[in-house]
Write a structure and sequence with these properties.
By secondary structure, the protein is an alpha/beta fold. It has a domain of 172 residues: Alpha/Beta hydrolase fold, catalytic domain (Rossmann fold, 3-Layer(aba) Sandwich), CATH 3.40.50. It is 46% helix and 12% strand. It has a six-stranded parallel sheet with strand order 2-1-3-4-5-6, with helices on both faces. Helix 2 crosses helix 3, helix 4 packs across helix 8 and helix 6 packs antiparallel against helix 7.
Length: 250
């Protein structure tokens, strides 16, 4: 399993969310990149607009760097990282040996969850961010199945004003989470070697979204029963087993 791997985290996460899964994967000598989305663990780079297109272009750059050094890569994404991973694969399929996504998918019929709609709304989104407190975030994430130590790390990152600003820009660039008129039109450009891995009890992107995408595209779907949105950290052994089976099948 020497193919280079690129892992892309989501919102409101950081690369820490991948730690349980990486601990369960036997990647051998495979090069592994687990970058932070710009602005999520530090300041936003000067001039970076934090739109969905900007993050997709950034991810293409990350994939290009791995490809240049190691050849076609396996890209893995969760939440917004899943959407960006799929977009990267659409834009530059020649860089990609395979793609695998967890608990988010580019779907023309999905309209976003409640918090996404709040973040998409000017003033209301800013009020939400101003009132959000790291300690409350940590409790909420842990209550939804994220390991408590990682929830605490993510809460520390939440104190970064640029992160909250980037999240608002990102969601507004996607009109909440609506891809019907842009990215979803390119689903046919996705490379064939794809996989979906889904926590069955996700309150943000319900399992029916994954089932619909799988039926439309023929992409294999692994359901992690009893897990929620952060199945990659809540049930890492099962997710690792699903990824390993997928990679070994290529």
């Amino acid at each position: 399993m020497t193919t280079a791997k690129l892992f892309l985290h989501g919102v409101p996460d950081s690369p820490a969310i991948w730690r349980p899964l990486l601990g369960q994967l036997d990647l051998g000598d495979a090069p592994v990149a687990v970058p932070a989305l710009p602005g999520f663990t530090g300041s936003l780079p000067a001039g970076f607009p934090a739109t969905k297109e900007a993050y997709a272009d950034w991810a293409v750059g990350e994939a290009e760097a791995l490809f240049a050094a190691h050849g076609p890569i396996d890209i893995v994404g969760h939440d917004w990282g899943a959407l960006i991973a799929q977009r990267t694969a659409m834009l530059r399929p020649g860089l990609i040996r395979s793609w695998a996504v967890s608990n988010a998918v580019i779907d023309p019929d999905y309209r976003g969850h409640r918090i996404a709609r709040i973040w998409n709304t000017p003033i209301l989104g800013e009020i939400f961010m101003a009132l959000s407190r790291p300690a409350a975030l940590a409790r909420g994430l842990a209550g939804q199945g994220m390991p408590a130590d990682i929830a605490a790390e993510e809460a520390v990152q939440w104190a970064n004003r640029d992160k909250r600003r980037a999240i608002l820009r990102l969601y507004r660039s996607a009109k909440g989470l609506s891809f019907e008129h842009d990215w979803a039109r390119d689903i046919g450009r996705l490379p064939a070697n794809g996989a979906l891995i889904w926590g069955a009890n996700d309150p943000y992107v319900e399992l029916a979204v994954a089932e619909r995408f799988a039926a439309r595209t023929g992409t294999p779907l692994t359901v992690i029963d009893g897990a929620g949105h952060w199945a990659i950290a809540e049930r890492p052994a099962e997710v690792a087993a699903a990824l390993t089976r997928f990679w070994n099948s290529l």
